[in-house]
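Input/output pair, single chain:
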Amino acid sequence: MAINEPDYFKLLTKKISKLSGIILDSYRDKYLKRRIELRMKVVGIKDYREYARFIEKDENELKALIDTLTINVTEFMRDKGPFEYFRDKLAVDIIERKQKSQSKLVRFWSAGCSCGEEPYSIGMCAREVFPEDWSISVYATDIDEKCLKSASEGIYCKDKLQNLDYSLKSKYFEKTENGYKIKNTNKLSYRFKRHDLTNDPPISKYLDTVFCRNVMIYFNEKQKVKMITRFHEGLIKGGFLVIGKSETLPNEIRHLFEPVSLKNKIYMKV
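Output:
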């Protein structure tokens, strides 16, 4: 069957990239095949060539495929360890550094922000520990425009908030008929933007911390090196990088960072 022909698979991925604008070279073949074949099974197609023709004619199926490829599952304060370390340790270091430079602005980047749970978690943690008169800016980027739209609306079901303390829920959310909505908070801003981690430059070159958790699992080694190098470019001297619990820095660029907490996968730019 043509479904097992690697040449047809490559032609299909090129077609998907052309139609969607998403560079699929950054995804592992096994991951792509699993996700693509899931959609093929739904529409009853077993041939890569036939499916390529199908998505070219059916815009709704193309959108469904992109959603399947970029699927995101997350919640607020997912894996509390890094957030607690950020709140209790990293924030102290950042405050000391900012006071020396007489700055009252801190910048964070949630790279691969999904539907917004991570950047809002970062913002809440930061607002709890940084002085009230300091400005906190959280850049939140993703390649999935559907996720970005949902994130910018800031409305979540009760289950998404299960890891939050009651005090944080009441302080940063308001109950609505559609769920829980993020409140506007003084001197705390969120900036949502579409961004391709494998091709676009860093979102800023004055970042205090970059969070990129559970994103590298979708990338090959070459793309990981490219992405981490750009994080290094975007971070200020002594800035921090937080990656996923099961992820590691590629050997080729480990010299760019110094481990701060291996348990929580936090590194400092050197």
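The first strand starts at residue 105 and ends at 111. The longest helix spans residues 80-101.
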